[in-house]
Amino acid sequence: MTQSHWILLFFLFKMKEAPKCHGELLNSCEKVNTHEVSAALGKTAKLPCSVPSTEMCRYRMKWVSYTSASAKPYTLQIWPPLSRQSQHLHGERLTFLWGEEGVEVGNWTLSLRDVRKNDSGTYTCQVWSGWQCVMGTRVILKVKECEVLNPIAALHKTTVILPCPFTSYQGNTPTPEVSWFLGPEGQGSLILHHPPTPSSPNSSGPIPLQGRVRFSGDLNSGNATLTISELNLNDTDWYRCILHMGENRKICKEMRLHFSDLPGSEVTLTTGTINVSMKANANEETGGSPAVVVVSVLSVCVAVAVAGAYIRYRK
Asked: Strand pairing of 121-129 and 132-144?
């Protein structure tokens, strides 16, 4: 072998070798960035790593994971790839952004699809120029059980619908069961279970929140919404929807319900029920007494008539 071949083999060996301590390796880099990334189960996590440069041929990169899914540090990908086949990351859930907005311009952000519980942990991106680590990125991935939806704004004494959309699969997939909880994760109390069971709140019998809660979705069409009527100030809280899809698969979504600061402000992420109630309240408030309206109109007419008579008299 020529000297260049030996150098190449040594480089490949060093790139594949897993460090004993990723903290020590990153500390040897000229620059170290730390990011915290949160992702809900089943969603996509973006693990950032980039070196803006027009001379990408100068750099090498390696992604390593330190998670409970592997007993030891696991090399996810290196760049440039060793072969055409190695351009595809291990597993179908990991991807790069290719092209002029991706690795060609130093954007080595890693996309992890269909996030699972054991994906939580630390990921490191090491960028090398020659034999020097010029930059290290430490990404701490936290996997949340629930996807956080946009907050729901509502008005006092109105009706609101809390959304819980999901992908409905046809065929032999069993109909999911849905449970709604009131309160933050880990501290919430069950307020509804659908389909109802004898030992849990149901959509037809008495339930918490003074019987003001009912299931209003359609599980066959991917809709597990919850309707709350006659809202009061005590209803401001976190609401959590958990769907049991079978085969140990679970979908969780949570949102916070709050009241609008201004009585006439627009309600977002709710249904037409709110708008109808708002219009009704507005009519009640602005309608007033018919007698008051008539007196006001007559007063204006009398004032105009007196002014006209005075002008004619002066002429």
From this structure: antiparallel
